[in-house]
Amino acid sequence: MLQPTRIIIADDHPLFRQALSNMLIKQFPQTHLLEAQTIPALEQLLLSSVEADLLLLDLDIPGAQGFNTLIHIRHNYPQLGVIVISGFEDKDTINKAMTHGAAGFIPKSTPVEQMISAINEVLAGKLWTPTGSFSAINSQSALMAEKIASLTPQQHKILMMFADGLLNKQIAYELGLSESTIKSHASTIFLKLGVRNRTQAVIALNELQLLQTNFD
To answer: How far apart are CA 53 and CA 82, in angstroms?
Structure first.
């Protein structure tokens, strides 16, 4: 059985994170576990732990933008296997997560034994979803996912700030850049996404987001 060297758990529910950690420690006693409760914390871990073998990702942790977080991680860390673990488990969500690069999708209601089996399947290079859940989604959504994945980390961060409603001067202040530089980045973002303005860019972004009210 493959023993991973590092596994990152990104989930903001302490009790679930602890239960997951305990399960993984028993299954992979030699593995180093890392934890993140927010997207900024996860980004710091990824920057310092690029040799991680697996990321267990809850798409609803603070700072996440639905599928966009998954798309961004898969684009920038293609060697990292990602399993989405979520309390939201309808087939459409599972299909989209898999199409956007997840190696597996484990509902939080999954029995422990099945979770272990799923993780082992992914570590062995296979895909795993609940039986019969995975099928392709429409090509338009997949195309937009590719466009968003083409953004640089800086451009992706600026797009997230657009979605948060920040003005160019606010973004410039937050990132320590000039307002003209932000405008230049914005133009490139619009070009890559095939949109004309920030409103259309945010709409395109939101098309790939999960509805936050549907999560646990």
So the answer is: 9
In a domain, 1, yes or no: no
Q: Judge whether 80 and 55 are in contact, CB under 8 Å.
A: yes
Q: Which domain holds residue 56?
A: 6-123
Note the pLDDT tens digit of each residue in 31-74: 889 999 998 899 888 888 657 889 999 988 888 777 888 888 88
Distance CA(142)–CA(139), nearest Å, equals 5
Same domain membership, residue 98 and residue 15 = yes
State how many domains the chain has.
Answer: 2
Examine the domain organization and report whether 191 and 118 are in the same domain: no
- Among 64, 90, 123, the domain boundary falls at 123
The position carrying tokens 């490139």 is 188
Q: pLDDT for 162-215, tens place per residue?
A: 988 899 999 999 999 999 999 999 999 999 888 888 888 887 787 666 433 333
Token code pair at residue 76: 């920038």
Entry pTM: 0.66
Residue 131 lies in a domain: no
**Sequence-distant (≥ 6) Cβ neighbours of residue 120 within 8 angstroms:** 1, 2
CATH of residue 100 = 3.40.50.2300
The angle subtended at Cα 148 by Cα 100 and Cα 44, nearest 5°, is: 80
Looking up tokens 């429409």 gives 138
Model confidence pLDDT, tens digit, residues 82-114: 999 988 888 888 888 888 888 899 998 898 889
